[in-house]
Amino acid sequence: MWKDWIRPLVRPLPQWSTIAMAPPQAVVGATLRWEGGIADVTNDHTVASLKPLVVATSIDAGLHPTLEYRDSTSGKLIGALKLSRMASVVSDGASVAVYHVVAGEHRCLGWPRRPWNAWLQNRLMLKHPSAQHALMAPSAVQQLMIAYLCPRPVVLVSVDTEDHRNMFPMDLIGPLGHDGLFSLALRSTNVSATVMLQSRRVALSSIPAAMKATVYKLSEHHRLPLTDWQSLPLAVRPSRTFGIPVVADALRVHELAIEHAQEIGSHTFFLGRIVSEERRVDGHQLHHTPGFHQVFRRRHHAPFAEI
Ligand SMILES: Cc1cc2nc3c(=O)[nH]c(=O)nc-3n(C[C@H](O)[C@H](O)[C@H](O)COP(=O)(O)O)c2cc1C
């Protein structure tokens, strides 16, 4: 059909694909390269702030490292971010290096589709500003998409104190290093950010892909706390150590003791230790990756299961 041919010429790809995959993702490997060093950071890097766009890792990679993303099957380089060292975040003896993203490029699309799609996407962002676009320049959103080439799992974060309870989705999360250090980057305007700082306890429910619609609905709780746990559109049960209500159908539940929190630009960067991990059922978790990554996968006859 002529429409299938003409569509990519006039319509940008969706920025994000919501996909189902078993955790932990291993389809893309991430490598940090710097003068005289190289380190696998597939399970050791995360986004720490959106404005400015900042990534964090436990690796000290000098002043100007590059973060590379490679397709695990073919070894092909599919994207890279150029980083510039900011300060370190120190928490209870552990040091986390934070880097400003200064440039980025992906190779999921060939030329000229790659610059053309970016131009179409950027034009759409400027035409229809959303909350995220108001926060970030289109060029930074393009770099953020590259940071999601390692598909990011979605969790529901539970916070529970005597006078504040909440459950909201997050994907700017992840382990850093091998010592049980775990980070969350939460917009400082979130209604639960200060409560998390005071209570120092959260529980993370890994969400089955089939619960996508419910999870997206809960994004309103970034602005609005819960009135009571019964008002949630899903069943909950208490977490193992803290007794915080978590998703009854979660694939896994992690409890986190927060040790440190620091504002980095638009976000509060929380660092904590995993207190408990319950592996409840094997299954496919909701993940996010950029739309151009799905095009790359389709071209290589291995599309992600989109939901
Ligand atoms: C699946 C999903 C994951 C999200 N992950 C994060 C996150 O990691 N950190 C964060 O600050 N906000 C996160 N958000 C919240 C959004 O960025 C946004 O702030 C929220 O939906 C409220 O939107 P509003 O500011 O337009 O009301 C997430 C939202 C969804 C739906």
Summarize the structure.
The protein is built from seven helices and 20 strands. The protein is α+β, with helices and mostly antiparallel strands and 307 residues long. Flavin mononucleotide (FMN) is lined by residues 131-132, 154, 169-172, 185-187, 190, 215-216, 219, 222-223.
Structural description of this entry:
- It is globular and about 55 Å long.
- The protein has helices at 2-10, 113-127, 131-135, 138-147, 193-199, 212-217, 291-299; strands at 16-21, 28-34, 37-40, 46-49, 54-57, 66-71, 77-91, 94-106, 152-153, 155-161, 164-170, 173-176, 181-187, 201-206, 236-238, 245-247, 252-264, 267-279, 285-290, 305-306.
- The chain has 2 domains: 2-150, Pnp Oxidase, Chain A (Roll), CATH 2.30.110; 152-286, Roll (Pnp Oxidase, Chain A), CATH 2.30.110.10.
- Helix content is 20%, strand content 43%.
- The chain has a 7-stranded antiparallel β-sheet with strand order 3-2-6-7-8-5-4.
- It contains 7 helices and 20 strands.
- It has 307 residues and is of the alpha+beta class.
- The structure holds flavin mononucleotide.
